[in-house]
UniProtKB/TrEMBL annotation:
Protein name as catalogued: Nucleoside deaminase
PANTHER family: CYTOSINE DEAMINASE FAMILY MEMBER, TRNA(ADENINE(34)) DEAMINASE, CHLOROPLASTIC
Record-annotated CMP/dCMP-type deaminase domain positions: 3-120
Pfam entry (one): dCMP_cyt_deam_1
GO MF annotations, alphabetized: catalytic activity
Species annotation: Nonomuraea cypriaca
Top-level division of the source organism's lineage: Bacteria
């Protein structure tokens, strides 16, 4: 990790503090372009927006997917105060961002907060393969 990476990661941590000060969970992220300049910043707004998906990493991934061409997105770096959750990691992958640098790992974060309350949603499947494959078949592969 370079000194510049550390400087930008410190900015992501400052954005996390901003989120906390505004009454939201303490997470912040920023995105740098190919030249290393900051092109977008976000902090968590889950509570103030009333939106469980308002994680800064997801907001930046969505912004990048809308605003950047794939070649440019591939040259970006996201700096984030904590390792992206599964939802955000999926969005980052789909948006084509090139690199993610994080401060706290998911394991470190887990030690700093209480365990998740409530059971995980039960999932059932797969089912109805023949029916379900019809709208999907041929979409991804010619």
């Amino acid at each position: 990790m370079t000194p510049e990476d550390q400087r930008l990661l410190s900015r992501a941590i400052a954005l996390a503090a901003t989120a906390r000060e505004s009454g939201n969970p303490p997470f912040g992220s920023l995105l740098t372009g190919p030249d290393g300049s900051v092109i977008a910043e976000e902090h968590n707004t889950v509570l103030t927006d009333g939106d469980i998906t308002a994680h800064p990493e997801l907001k930046l991934a969505r912004w990048a997917a809308r605003e950047l061409d794939p070649a440019t997105a591939a040259t970006t770096t996201m700096y984030t105060s904590c390792q992206p959750c599964g939802m955000c990691a999926g969005a980052i992958e789909r948006s084509g961002l090139g690199r993610v640098v994080f401060a706290l790992s998911s394991e470190q974060l887990a030690k700093l907060k209480p365990p998740t309350v409530g059971p995980a949603a039960r999932q059932e499947g797969p089912a109805l393969f023949e029916e379900a494959r019809v709208p999907v078949e041929g979409y991804y592969l010619p």
